[in-house]
Here is the input.
Amino acid sequence: MTRRPDVVVAGGGVAGVMAAITARRHGLAVTLVDDNATPGGQVFREPSAFARTVTPPDHERREGDRLRELLRRSGVRVLSGWGIWSVQPGYRLDLSNDFAVQVLEAGSLVAATGAVERFFPFAGWTDPAVMGLAGASLLMRAGGVLPGRRTLVAGAGPLLFSVAHQVLDAGGEVVAIVDTATRTQWAARAATLALDPARLKTGVAWMARLARAGIPVLGGAVIRQARRGEDDLDVTIGSVRGGAPVRSVRCDAIACGYGLKPSLGLTRMLKARHVFDEAAGYWHPHADPFGRTDVAGLYVTGDGAGVRGAQMARLRGILTGHGLAFDHGRIDAATLAHLARPLLRAMRRLEVVSRAMTSLMNPRPAIMKEAEMHAPDTLMCRCERVSIAAGGQAIRDGAGDMNQFKAWTRCGMGPCQGRMCEDSARQLLARHTARAPTEVGAFTQRLPLRPVPVRALSGNFAYADIVLPQAAPP
Amino acid sequence: MSAVMSRPAVMDVAVLGAGVMGSTAALFLARQGRRVALIDRKAIFREASGVNAGTLTLNMTRAALVPHALKGREMWLEARSWLGRDVGAVATPGLSLAFTEAECALLEERAAARREMGAPISVVGAARALEVEPGLNTTVRAAAYCPLDGFIPAYGVGRGYCLALCEAGVEIMENSAVDGIARAGGHYEIVSAGQVIARARSIVLAGGAWLERMMAWLGLRMRVKCLVNQLVVTERLPPVMGSVVSIANGLLSLKQFVNGTVVMGGGWQGRGHVDTGETSVIPANLVGNVRLASFTIPRLSEARIARIWLGFESETDDAMPAIGPIPGWENAFVIGCVHSGFTSGPYMGRLLAQAMDGQAVDLKAFDPARLLLSLPSAHKGFCS
Ligand SMILES: Cc1cc2nc3c(=O)[nH]c(=O)nc-3n(C[C@H](O)[C@H](O)[C@H](O)COP(=O)(O)OP(=O)(O)OC[C@H]3O[C@@H](n4cnc5c(N)ncnc54)[C@H](O)[C@@H]3O)c2cc1C
Ligand SMILES: Cc1cc2nc3c(=O)[nH]c(=O)nc-3n(C[C@H](O)[C@H](O)[C@H](O)COP(=O)(O)OP(=O)(O)OC[C@H]3O[C@@H](n4cnc5c(N)ncnc54)[C@H](O)[C@@H]3O)c2cc1C
Here is the structure.
């Protein structure tokens, strides 16, 4: 039996790892849980042995290896390969893998579970050759595998260009980039990039490379339909403003995503206060710069507190680590202020750029309207096979909020717990009932946060081992 | 303030609580030609009536309720004829199992009690049980077999009701939390957030687990018990079972829905309180429920759990509902607090509507007066 830690950090991305290491340096007993085989999270994910041989060692790989090495020497207890499926106040976390469950308890909990990709449907999106930008990136970064020979990259936000760049790096072809944001919208934000020279440099290099390769970047555009052909996809692209199709292209893979949104499972389960970020189009937990939420002992750090990118995630993680040290009486207020000052200064500069990027990731309600108009039979919930038209009918029948909508359609009741369809449902409801997205609410978070194998939960047991409560009356 | 102008018109009946009890009563009252307002603080069918396990079982229903459950089950299966649409009710056989000697004795006893009340239940051996349900654990010793069982995907039923209620002309008022009732000039005023949101000659209190709170508005204290029931649902599976399965001690209810998901219930308790609406899983009870289910249908051990939830159910000591006039209050009625109330809901809701219409129906066993305590309420919940 290991001793009860002071802090459990949920999530082993850059934010979680830095929070854990920092808190440990201040003398706190820290356990870090992550569901991947090794820590690193989304950006610094450890490449497979194969991937190491086929892709060049970029900045992310070097940084990731350094992060893992730091963590290994830090004295933080690391539980990799365990998913958190339940959390209760106090805090009790229930973990599982395919074979077993275990329980962790600590007085402080850091939610560092990062961000998840936002998605909106288009006709044909359920074809196996269509994947998320995050999925495509994972495939290349961790697996060393290309999404296809000819990939169409679509959606919104800077991830488009990051993924296109990765495809080229891995020797693939990018057919085109389809972006909901217009050139004007990008131009309006581009100036802020000057505040973040590193990102500016990367951005300029990516764009130059796309231009050199002659890859068309279609702004203010969305995929209207992808039709399966003999051995590729025939894709029709439309304008976000509707009207006639803009162009059609052929490809054998589509990587599509509409930016990121914070992963809210833990903070929703613990009923922390959440606020809606209009510009970004998502809910995030309310927290101070150290990540303290309105729930005592609950912190949120990294992209889970609002999507700001890897650099900010690192800084936020360190700040949360210092905050934990102060809250546990390891350092005094003056030391905290001294440690925090340079971090806060760096964050203020990055914040302007990151905020500009989050608004470019937000595709706005037009996108569901587009899909509903052109392809009402398209599924909005893949798990439960609910079409956009069926969703619209439920609203006309009287479903006025997110949870009634879920009950009447099963949209969001499947294994993904609504991660894929919640944004579509919210947009559909808001538009049909002429209300703001905040007014139609959110799906109620239910346990488990991720599916738990029955075998893992039940363990090996005999009938006599089952602890039965008192029998029901006759 | 233009108080007079903005005052809501006087309805014939205001029904408070849009679960299966209140909604059914409202539907049949409206069909009698009355002007009805149906008021809920949430949306229709979002509490017990929308989150229950949807089992239409006789094996699990208290013996005394069997005659009513039989009628309710029948109504669900024929929803088209009175609700105007199908609600996905499926008729299957039901089995209650015994794995130990003690359970065999319990099984005999319970089956006999239910048989006496009209349930066609017979105790059969392992071979017959496995014939009815090949997915069972083969160590089963005996089973109480009932040809009349079944289930409904409860979460979607509110939609059918919503449409039927609109067709019948019921005014549905959602998101309207009532916090008091006042008597004014021969009618009742329904108050929400300090505003009179409806006025009616008669009222029906149908607040489910919140009925105790509603009765307190009238200065009455009603003795009910509140349960926080746990349900566990798997991801979709290929067919693993085709009947409703429970065990002798009543602590399991198990069935596979048409979409392939399996719901595990049986009245295992979580923590929660009706006043806050907060609930949380008791880990040991989750493990117990899941073990019992996967022991009973061994193929469930290959499944993954997709969702766990808890809901509030209220019941009386004698498992019978409170249905009828509220003592001391003119034109005020109550309905609710019956064990397994989803099954018998449509029947009981219609019964109240018939009684209010002056039809000769026997509500003696349901008389709310038997549940009233003379002491003023301390307003404390029984769920802890
Ligand atoms: C495809 C893609 C590409 C990106 N590229 C860039 C980029 O180039 N530059 C940039 O600045 N940002 C990029 N981002 C954004 C990036 O994700 C973040 O900025 C950064 O990774 C945030 O770090 P984090 O520690 O907050 O979260 P993450 O790195 O996402 O780490 C969270 C970790 O928590 C784990 N986790 C979540 N829930 C649970 C649970 N219930 N149980 C156990 N573990 C759990 C996750 O598996 C993950 O390992 C990209 C994101 C994606 C999806
Ligand atoms: C988890 C679970 C599983 C169950 N499984 C089964 C089963 O398998 N088979 C079976 O037959 N029965 C089952 N039951 C029991 C059954 O669900 C209930 O008996 C039945 O639904 C009760 O109906 P009701 O209309 O009385 O209550 P409810 O459906 O709870 O309706 C009461 C309504 O009153 C409203 N309300 C409360 N206070 C106010 C207020 N102040 N102002 C306005 N509105 C208010 C609520 O919002 C609610 O909508 C189960 C119950 C639960 C919780």
Observations:
- The first helix of chain B runs from residue 3 to 6.
- Residues 1-5, 375-384 of chain B have pLDDT under 50 and may be disordered.
- Chain B touches chain A through 59 residues (CB under 8 Å).
- The two ends of chain B are 43 Å apart (CA to CA).
